[in-house]
Every structure is written in C-alpha cells, then in structure tokens.
Design a protein that fits this description.
- This protein has six helices and seven strands, in the order H-H-H-E-E-E-H-E-H-E-H-E-E.
- By secondary structure, the protein is an alpha+beta fold.
- Strands 1, 2, 3, 4, 5, 6 and 7 form a seven-stranded mixed β-sheet that branches.
- The longest helix has 15 residues.
- The structure holds coenzyme A.
- Coenzyme A binds next to strand 3, helix 4 and helix 5.
C-alpha cells in the first residue's frame, strides 16, 4: 500500500516532491516493507493513510517524523486529485498533529517547493506560517523549498 501510494503521488505531482519517480519505481520491495515496518513501531515516525467511503483504494498519505525534543516534521503529503478540496488533506494534517502532540511536540515544520501555490494556500488555510530564518529555513533554501510551521498547544491541536 505504501509503495502504491507513493508511486501515485510521484506520478501525479512530480514537482511537489524531492524524490524522482524512477528512483521510487526501482526501489526493491523489501525496502518498502522495512520502511512501512519502521513506522509501525515506536514513536520515531508514522505514515497516515486516508480513505473515503466513495473510493475502494486509499486516497491520501502523509509522513510525520519526530525530531527531538519537540518538533514534528511533515513530508510526502498527497491527496488523490479526484477527492481534493473535500477535507482529506486537512484530516491528514490533523491526524499527524494529534500524533505529534501525543509525544509532546510543540510545533509542526514542513517544506513546500517554491512555486507550489496550491500547497502554500492549503497550508496557510490550515494556519501554517512562513519560517523566514533559522536552520529549517536555510535547509529548505538549499533545495528550492520554503519552510512553514504551525504550533501545537499541549494536548490541543490548533486547527483554524
Ligand atoms: C495540497 C493538498 C494536499 C491539499 O489537499 P486537499 O485534500 O485538497 O485539502 P483540503 O480539502 O483538506 O483543504 C483544506 C483547506 O485548504 C484549502 N485548499 C486546499 N487546496 C487549496 C488550493 N489549491 N487553493 C486554495 N485553497 C486550498 C481548502 O479550500 C480548505 O479550506 P476550507 O476549510 O476553507 O474549505 C493537495 O492539493 C495535493 O495533494 N497536492 C499535490 C501534492 C502536494 O503539492 N503536496 C504538498 C507537498 S508539500
């Protein structure tokens, strides 16, 4: 399932992600299995996968990684174009933030490739703001991406 969703993401929105589709296609099956297993144990990382009643297959995915002590990093966010603008993305970010809150994260940080206006508008609508300086902003700049962040209030995820 993880492989299928990632290949669908990379086919649909190649410009949104750092990983080329060819690399993902060539990746051996056991590596996908190990990646999925790693996220199902402990609290270092988690994949969230979304489904909707109208579709037999999953329609969205996001990866969250723990950066101790208190930052949750979001990657690989994707929603199937057939179900966009229906709240699936919002639900995935909410689930990711709830999970991060459970281990004490106080903010979510992610990177958006410069020029990905739909994603910028999506994250802004969800209350994310630019990170204009600091190591995360610098890290993104090296890859042509801009960093965004949203706070997590302990025990309560802020969702506008
Ligand atoms: C960005 C993406 C994940 C949004 O998913 P989605 O399921 O369509 O988003 P939602 O329906 O949950 O939208 C949540 C809010 O953001 C707004 N929003 C979503 N896409 C938007 C867009 N293109 N332009 C403006 N606002 C947008 C929605 O209108 C909604 O606001 P509302 O509560 O006022 O209705 C999806 O468009 C996508 O997968 N894009 C391609 C991959 C990508 O760019 N990923 C991000 C990598 S950083």
């Amino acid at each position: 399932m993880l492989r299928d969703l990632r290949l669908r993401s990379l086919s649909d929105s190649p410009e949104a992600f750092g990983q080329p589709l060819d690399d993902a296609v060539a990746r051996p099956g056991p590596e996908w299995a190990a990646q999925a297993r790693a996220a199902s144990e402990g609290d270092r990382r988690a994949w969230f996968i979304a489904g909707v009643a109208e579709a037999a297959e999953p329609v969205g995915i996001v990866l969250v990684r723990r950066r101790p002590p208190d930052v949750a990093l979001v990657f690989s966010m994707w929603v199937d174009p057939r179900v966009r603008r229906a709240g699936v993305g919002r639900g995935l970010i909410h689930a990711a933030s709830e999970w991060a809150s459970s281990w004490g994260a106080d903010r979510v940080v992610l990177w958006v490739v410069a020029g990905n206006e739909p994603a910028f508008r999506f994250y802004q609508r969800l209350g994310f703001t630019w990170l204009e300086s600091g190591p995360d902003a610098d890290f993104g700049g090296a890859y042509g991406a801009l960093a965004m962040t949203r706070p997590i209030t302990r025990g309560r995820v802020r969702t506008p």
